Amino acid sequence: DRSLLIVLMAAPPAPWFVLRGHSSAVNGIDFLACESSHAALLLAGCLAGDVAVWDLAQKRRVHTVQACPPTSGVLSVAADTNSSFFVHGRDGAVARWTLDSGQCAHAGSSTRFGIGTFCKIDLARRGGAQLVLGPDEDIARVRVTDASTGSPTQVLATDGAPSGMLMAVRALPQLGDTTHVAGIHEDGSLTVWDLRTTRALTRTKLFDDAGLCIGAIGDSRVVCGAAVAKLAVLDLDLSGSPADLGPPTDIALARAGTNDISVRGDGKLLAAAGWDGRLRVFSTKKMAPVAVLEEHADAALCTRFSPRLAAHGGAMLLAAGSKDRRVSLWSLYNEH
Asked: N or C terminus of the chain: which is more exposed, having fewer CB within 10 Å?
């Protein structure tokens, strides 16, 4: 039956696996490479303050650590190299943890970012230094902190009219020896800074409502989500002075609200986590939609693509954490 064939072809794929049993809403996820075991691990940070560590080969939880007080909870997690990761609490505290032989331990310095904003931390490198980016105490600004000492090194401020609170920050891939940082604000404007000079290279209005998230496609394109029913795509040329911006392109969505955006390591796919619980996946070449993934019963709060996982045939998995206390895992278009 031809009509049935069409329906089957159009049906969204099923998840590769679903991780259940989290204590509360999953606010942050990331993939962690563990050098001691060569395992592919997933971190899931929860509203109740705990971080679950999942072994993807065994599809089971191997450790849980109470990384933040239950009264504040986890806002985000960010995996570093060498089996370490950062946990960002909703109270602004950021601490580094290490995982060795299945045990988590607090590792060295901690710091505190601004509170009262939904902005999650991001990691960047400048030369050999590891940096943590997050909201400043003046929550319209970005604070740059040395990960090894926990000490602030720079503050990035917007120019001109007030922008409201910082809602998301993203380190862009390095352009030569230069690191750029993008931030989106409550007024829907996007600002890009040169981290060497702390100078704002450009600021442009993308939305009439609060911007919520940023995804970087290489060093020349960003895709931003907001509290409205669209994504905004902006081409960047940051090699000159002043920076050259193409006009933003709007991608209409069926429902309003995008909490997070993730771009696959090969730059070919982008996933947007929606308020409606759906993951909308796009081909980045023309920002054409390729799948709408439906698994969650409540809002999708965070999403992340894995690096290539040798234990899974070199596949790059897509993960999403949700308010429904589950993490869905997907294997999409992994032919290589």
From this structure: N
Give the residue carrying structure tokens 């290489």.
218
If residue 293 lies in a helix (H) or strand (E), which one and from where to where? Answer: strand 288-294
Over the stretch 147-180, which tens digit does the pLDDT of each residue have? 988 899 999 998 877 789 999 999 998 766 778 9
The number of angstroms, rounded, from the C-alpha of 315 to the middle of its chain's C-alpha atoms is: 19
Task: Give the single-character DSSP code of 311.
Answer: G
> Backbone phi, then psi, for 3, in 5-degree steps?
-65, -40
Sign of the CA dihedral 5, 330, 268, 257?
Answer: positive
Overall size of the chain counted in residues: 336
The model's pTM is 0.92
pLDDT, tens only, 20-52: 999 999 999 999 976 555 678 999 999 999 999
Phi-psi region of 186 (alpha: psi -120 to 50; beta: other; left: phi over 0): alpha
Half-sphere exposure of 274 (CA within 13 A, CB side): 22
